[in-house]
Amino acid sequence: MWRILFIAFLILHGALHAAIWVTPSKEGRDTPFDPSHSWLLGGQRALAVAMALAVAGLLVAAGVGLWAHAEWWRPVAVTGLAGSFILMVLYFNPWFLLIQAVNLALVVTLVWGAWPTKSMLGV
């Protein structure tokens, strides 16, 4: 059960990155934030989209790798989650604080905590 939930989380997390940064904003519409504007880099939509698609690809690949019982899923997941963290720091909005904490906690537990365990994942 945990394995299926973690696979779904990785794939949906990747899909959400694509949805947030690739979907064009509608002119004249009041939105809570502009995902193409970085507090550090200014208006860099192309960079944001490229980073979001790379992160999405890594997270989806990690989910598929975990589903296929591939040994490489963990480093790919860590890379995708770290990329997600960096992307959301560069294009920071207070709405991202919860997922930033989740990204950081997952990177720490995947790298140093050896979580989730193989028995938890049914591997």
A few lines on this structure:
This protein has 123 residues and is mainly alpha-helical. The protein is built from 5 helices and 2 strands; from the N terminus they run H-E-E-H-H-H-H.
Q: How would you sum up this structure, described in words?
A:
The protein is mainly α and 123 residues long. The protein contains five helices and two strands, in the order αββαααα. It has a two-stranded antiparallel sheet. It is elongated and about 50 Å long.
Question: What is the overall silhouette?
Answer: elongated
Q: What is the residue-averaged pLDDT?
A: 89
Order of helices and strands: HEEHHHH
SS content category: mainly alpha
- The Cα radius of gyration reads 15 Å
State the major sheet: 2 strands, antiparallel
Distance between the termini: 12 Å
Total number of strands: 2
Keywords:
mainly alpha; two-stranded antiparallel ribbon; 5 helices; 123 residues; elongated; single chain
Please specify the SSE layout and strand pairing.
Blueprint: H1 2-22, E1 37-38, E2 42-43, H2 45-67, H3 73-90, H4 97-111, H5 118-121
Antiparallel strand pairs: 1-2
Helix pairs in contact: 1-2, 2-3, 3-4
